[in-house]
Design brief:
Length: 619
């Protein structure tokens, strides 16, 4: 066996734990070189040159998209692969019925050997990173070892990378160890293994997104969720947004929507209503602690966005469009002949790409082509600081105070535009029984409804029943618990178009929620909870194309009788580990459904959802 060279940078680390780990990995993976990344612009400049030379990066039009690159991933490696993602704790019950489990011993015999000589002929990059603001007591250090320079470039944008993390780490052994290799990119030899008991991740066979940027879903959600349970805080798949209303109050909310369901867009929306201002704090991950005064305080552990390109336009999300015009990495978008990125929806006026556009796989798009030019999960990577709506909250060490939590899904039917839970416990039930349709963010069929509790189905690193219990235990620790809401931007008419215009108009829903938080908006009680009163929701000046209040807010007792049954069936998979109070909440829902059925008026002539569309929405 060949020993990888010791490099001077490793000698200078002066952290024996890190040094030993690096040497151990180098011994197994046998890279040609080891580079400990400092995060400097010289360092990244060198890497970019190398990637442009070997085709990993394609430089985009330097005058229109300065210092920006396109990367095309392998066609079999374009999204998270949930079926190849494992929680490797000692006891299967601790992973729970919603996770794939592999014992640490099996991982050692099945997955570890794949790292043997995996980096031969390649450079091994050691990437120290900090999750959270540099002087936040809540920030955590991780180190990712990877043989992908594309991963390094992304981590540099997505995290506080390099020396800042090493300084924070000092001599401590307190860091998450992420080992990543591209391997041979074959899905047959692809594994993403999480070891919560040793705070370690092994990922091999993918260079894409959440599979490979281990700081993101692997560390900041799967491992952090376990630490959060043990230490009494919450690591959540949530955006963080501050909204200043015409009264001058700023209210911070955190929202959990599953992948591909609108977090990034809501976090940076431009409100359609005058007098409202939106401050973006986070677009994907939220760490919340019980802060002074018994309020949840949230930090965004990330420093950048890995956002979905498709559907992003000056009409839907101008802030994102302005953020990505320089220093951006685009993955699997198409590129026009003048070297600018292109994706479906980028220009609502021209749905077809310009002639000569090259698709995400590098093929010229012919005039008769019907398949999309950009991959539906094509992404941009950009620093959060480039987003025009970024707020000071991003760097606030103690985080921002959270007054409202929003759960939401992508549901063509049944779920109204918004409702409010009647208590914190009821809110936990609403989150626990969330259903959403699958999207292109993970491989597999899209548009399939599935239970995705708190948008954490693919990201909770332990038994979800224990996760529900943890949430339930946080409530009583809060003297100012957040109000909990559920939203659905994606309800459809009978003809299959979206009833609600969404995007900047979502401020109307935020307005109602904020006013509820401050005790000012009227509500109507339904079997789901409170919905806006008929005259208590601002539809002024909104072109809804015939859709009505009823279309948006109707709650059909027959449909919810079926939903309640499905909730119970889902909750039952957790067996005796499920907190009883969730079963009691389900029984209460069944009672409210029965009451609603008993008092239901005669069927209306025009059933909800029959109105025409609110506004042409793609997707
Ligand atoms: P991940 O980054 O995968 O976690 O997704 P996300 O939750 O950040 O979703 P994102 O904001 O990127 O939106 C996903 C898709 O939904 C995009 O194509 C958006 O254009 C679309 N979308 C977002 N918000 C709305 C909305 O209010 N209405 C409609 N109709 N579509 C929306
Ligand atoms: C998601 O799927 O929720 C993402 C993309 O944000 S990835 O980083 O690939 O997980
Ligand atoms: Mn996103």
């Amino acid at each position: 066996m060949r020993f990888a060279p010791r490099c001077d940078a490793v000698n200078q680390l002066q952290n024996q734990f890190l040094d030993q780990w690096i040497q151990a990995i180098a011994t197994i993976a046998t890279p040609d070189n080891i580079v400990v990344c400092d995060g400097s612009s010289e360092e990244i400049g060198g890497l970019e040159k190398k990637m442009v030379a070997d085709g990993t990066f394609i430089a985009l039009n330097g005058s229109r998209y300065p210092h920006s690159f396109l990367h095309r991933s392998h066609p079999s490696d374009v999204a998270r692969t949930e079926q190849l993602t494992f929680i490797c704790c000692e006891k299967k019950e601790d992973a729970g019925p919603t996770n794939n489990w592999m014992s640490p011993a099996e991982a050692k015999s099945r997955v570890w050997p794949l790292f043997s000589k995996a980096m031969a002929g390649r450079t091994m990059y050691v990437v120290p990173y900090l999750m959270g603001p540099a002087d936040s007591p809540y920030a955590r250090v991780g180190v990712e070892i990877t043989d992908s320079p594309y991963v390094v470039a992304n981590l540099r944008v997505m995290t506080r990378m390099g020396d800042v993390a090493l300084r924070r780490l000092g001599n401590s052994s307190n860091f998450v160890k992420g080992l990543h290799s591209l391997g041979d990119l074959s899905p047959e030899r692809r594994f993403i293994c999480h070891f919560p008991e040793t705070r370690t991740v092994w990922s091999i066979g993918s260079g894409y997104g959440g599979n490979a940027l281990l700081a993101k879903k692997c560390h900041a959600l799967r491992l952090a969720s376990v630490e959060a349970k043990d230490e009494g805080w919450l690591a959540e798949h949530m955006l963080i947004v501050g909204i200043t209303d015409p009264k001058g109050r700023t209210t911070y909310l955190a929202a959990a929507f599953p992948s591909g369901c609108g977090k990034t867009n809501l976090a940076m929306m431009i409100p359609s209503l005058p007098g409202y201002k939106v401050e973006t704090v986070g677009d994907d991950i939220c760490w919340m602690h019980v802060g002074e005064g018994g309020r949840l305080r949230a930090i965004n552990p990330e420093a950048g966005m890995f956002g979905i390109a498709v559907g992003t336009s000056m009409k839907t999300n101008p802030n994102a469009m302005r953020a990505v015009v320089n220093d951006a990495i685009f993955t699997n978008v198409a590129v026009t002949p003048d070297g600018t990125p292109w994706w479906e929806g980028i220009d609502p006026v021209h749905p077809r790409p310009p002639p000569g556009t090259i698709d995400w796989r590098g093929r010229v798009v012919g005039p008769d082509r019907t398949e999309p030019a950009a991959h539906p999960n094509a992404r941009y990577t950009v620093s959060m600081r480039q987003c025009p709506s970024v707020g000071a909250g991003l760097e606030q060490p103690s985080g921002v105070p959270i007054s409202g939590i929003i759960f939401g899904g992508r549901r063509a039917k049944r779920a109204p535009l918004v409702f409010e839970a009647t208590s914190f416990t009821h809110g936990v039930y609403v989150g626990a029984t969330m259903v959403s349709e699958t999207t292109a963010a993970a491989t597999g069929a899209t548009g399939v409804p599935r239970h995705d509790p708190m948008a954490m189905l693919p990201f909770c690193g332990y038994n979800m029943a224990d996760y529900f219990r943890h949430w339930l235990e946080i409530g009583p620790k809060l003297s100012h618990p957040p109000k909990i809401f559920h939203v659905n931007w994606f309800r459809q008419s009978k003809s299959g178009s979206f009833l609600w215009p969404g995007f900047g108009e979502n401020i109307r829903v935020m307005q109602w929620m904020i006013d509820r938080i401050h005790g000012e908006a009227d509500a109507r009680s339904t079997l789901l909870g409170h919905v806006p009163a008929r005259n208590g929701f601002n539809l002024d000046g909104l072109a809804m194309g015939g859709a009505s209040y009823d279309d948006l807010f109707d709650v059909d007792p027959d449909a919810w009788a079926e939903e309640a049954d499905a909730h119970l069936k889902f909750l039952r998979i957790f067996g005796s580990r499920l907190p009883d109070v969730l079963v009691e909440e389900q029984a209460a829902l069944v009672r409210r459904v029965a009451e609603a059925r008993a008092s239901a008026p005669a069927p209306k002539s025009s059933p909800p959802g029959s109105g025409s569309t609110a506004r042409a929405n793609s997707r």
